[in-house]
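Fold it.
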Amino acid sequence: MCGIAGIWPAHQTDSPAILSRMLASIAHRGPDGSGVADLGAGAPVFGHRRLAIVDLSEAGRQPMDSASGRLTIVLNGEIYNHAALRQELQAGTGRPVAWRGHSDTETLVEAIEHWGLAGALDRCIGMYAIAVWDRSTRQLSLARDRFGEKPLYWSQTRNGLVFGSELKALMASGWLDLQVSRDAVAALLRHNNIPGPGSVFEGVHKLEPGHLLVLDAPGATPAPRAYWSVHEAWRRGRAEPFRGSDDEAVGALESELQRVLRDQMQADVPLGAFLSGGVDSSTVVAVMQSLSSRQIRTFTIGFPVQGYNEAEAAKAVARHLGTDHTELYLSPGDALRVIEQLPAMYCEPFADSSQIPTYLVSNMARHHVTVALSGDAGDEVFAGYNRYLFGPDMLRRIRAWPRALRTGAAGLVDAFAPSTWDTLGRRFGGLLDANARFADLGDKLGKVGRALRAHDEDELYESLISQWPQPSRVVPGGSAPVPVPHWQELGLASLDPVERMMVRDATGYLPDDILTKVDRASMAVSLEARAPYLDHRLYEFAARLPMHLKIREGRTKWLLRQVLHRHVPRELIDRPKVGFGIPIEHWLRGELRDWAEALLSPQALSRTGVFDTAVVRSAWHEHLSGRANRQHRLWCVLMFQAWHQHWIEGRAWQRPEGA
């Protein structure tokens, strides 16, 4: 786990000084050392910041050459099956490989030389962003892991090609023209994030998950190509569906999880796990503990606010499993102090407010371990989101309603403030089955109101994922349409509505929100976060499963729950789903009000020059009055405003003289 950066100058330049600035900007990703390799005249310059996880010796330093000297590589990430790849290389080359150490980077560069880049990546199990220079072909290759756990930005500028693990590294080069994309800002308001392959700046790209890019020259313009895709995993799943019994499915899933976790529990540094007490993280920890002869270190944080605290549930699970558990209860002040760090941490605007507790639990864990496994992506892999449970069924039911009745029902939902619905939910929630209760009922009913107006499943999905339903009204001149997959062309026309939402989440929400949040929050404190559910073998297994093994009798993640119930009593787990969030709604009316008002003032909005001031101010007043809960919409605007103030108005990137 590290940070990488590089340039491929189009003309003579002061490369060492540029790489020094770029690496300094991402020093938090690799506090254990740095390295630069100037690969010669007309070639790139590679830089690397090291967080030593496997092979802590000098033999693990990067940039690293292959044994023959043909290839040079920089790697950010982990190749979990590198030991098996070494054995395969030994057998396949027909000669002993003179290994210098036992790092996964050395394994990878030799694998690329032997099998080629695509062949090596096809064999790799892990998370990674890599750059490889081939001296024989004079080609630069960039590649990103299958799901996008590790980030990789790149841009072709007037000075040449520049790439790096974070956008701040590209800014530090001084090569970018920092023109904010209005479409990107509109997308931020819709999604909480800026979806790839674009970025907040025109002309700066994210390499998409499961893609590689091969360049013959710094000014070349080839299209990235996919070497693996979620769509292909589902096509294969449809061609070879799982046909076993329920018991066979439970056993097969537990075996898959054991195989994955044996790989991901390998490290030469202390290792632990995040534990929220929910299904996903509890299953990871339960299987980890079953495989370990020592207590697994687990970590959770709590907020002393009703509806936002899962620390007690996590403690109960940890006690039952016998883990070495650490918890920390945080005051509002602890979380509020993090907000000031967010613009520097997320160097393009990012507005999922669970970024705050994610940073806080990462920071706590880093005092004890260097690697932490998480339950991220369990929802995308095993159908855990509430929208999978209620969305398609709701659409099927309301299609039978006359249009006027649907509009009237939506109006009824909108007639009451979200806070009123929240009060009713707390008062009468005890009359409902536990699985039908929701935290933050008012906000969820707001989405139901928008869903009632949907004409088809694509409009339904758009309504469920959108924060500002019409972001172009807020960002004049900006456009943020939600692309609809061509299911027939993809060979996935047979997927049902829930499966289609799962595919769209795995290709959009997962890399652009969940994985972005975790990478930046964990790497800000030099902690490696691993996501076992994103082992592609496990994902491909899950894609083969029929829907009744994922959602059954009103319960999401049915199969995953059955594995967990082998280790943890049902009563510790079966409770209403609670997101990993913080009470932003209340803080914006209280502790954060002055901070927010300063960023949302007409003067501040005018300086930014992106938003329709009247629309934003109206949403702010609605929220302050309690007539509506606009926390998510406002957080999008606030995170852009804070980012702009830090990076653009404050010129935190500091363009060098003459650049």
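The chain has 29 helices and 17 strands.
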